[in-house]
Amino acid sequence: MKVVFFEDVEGTAQVGDVKDVKNGFARNFLLPRALAGAPTKDNLQRAMSLAQKEARRQEKLDAEARKVTQGIENYVVTLEARVGENGRLFGSVTNRDIAEKLNASTGMSVDAHIILLAEPIREIGARPVTIKFTRNVSVEITVDVVPDEASKPIVARLMAEREAEAAALAKAQAARAYAEAEAGKSAGFEADDDDDEDESEEAE
After folding, report:
1. Which of 70, 97, 112 is the last residue in one of the domains?
2. pTM for this model (two decimals)
């Protein structure tokens, strides 16, 4: 069924759009809630008027959001966390934790829901996180999760172990490469010896 949208429907359409949708979706959801209607002349004019009004509203929201993003672009939010023996956090860092720290540090009022975190953070380290203020305006900050004082010895030990493992692996790879190179040389010498024997036989 073809309908014209009077409001934004997330993941489906924006106000003013004319789209084909499933009949059940239109009859059971869109039409009863007056989110969309049949694409008649009157409905199309109404939708266009609503779309223009929404565009002006969105432009105003975007302008306000851009002023805010200028203050936190490339901002680093540092959060301390307790780390377990396996290197993972006790608990996790959520978008709510990030919002609270960001707001406390900057005096802003960023809603946790606009901080796009696919899943809670469960490991130390820095990673980029996007804050989406409006449909068109977003900013990327860095969230750096560091060990608290009690966890620093654990993290230091884990890092030392990882460095030792990396060094051992590099040493083993170097030894393997050397052995393969020596084997290649030996094969080359044997081939040369065979050639010398063939030349001697031909000379006889």
Report:
1. 70
2. 0.66
Whether 162 maps to a domain, the answer reads: no
- What pLDDT is stored for residue 42 in this prediction? 96
What is the sign of the dihedral through the CA atoms of 175, 178, 180 and 182?
negative
Angstrom distances, CA of residue 75 to CA of 29, 120, 200? 42, 20, 78
The last residue of a domain, from among 40, 70, 100: 70
pLDDT at 166: 80
Decide if 141 contacts 74 (C-beta within 8 A).
Answer: yes
Give the tens place of pLDDT for each residue, 4-33: 999 999 889 999 999 999 999 999 999 999
- CA 158, CA 151: separation in Å to the nearest integer? 11
3-state DSSP assignment of residue 108: coil
CA distance 70 to 173: 48
Looking up tokens 């006790």 gives 90
Closest listed residue to residue 97, CA positions, set 85, 82, 115: 115
Would you place residue 70 in the very low, low, confident or very high pLDDT band (cuts 50, 70, 90)? confident
Residue 39 DSSP code:
-
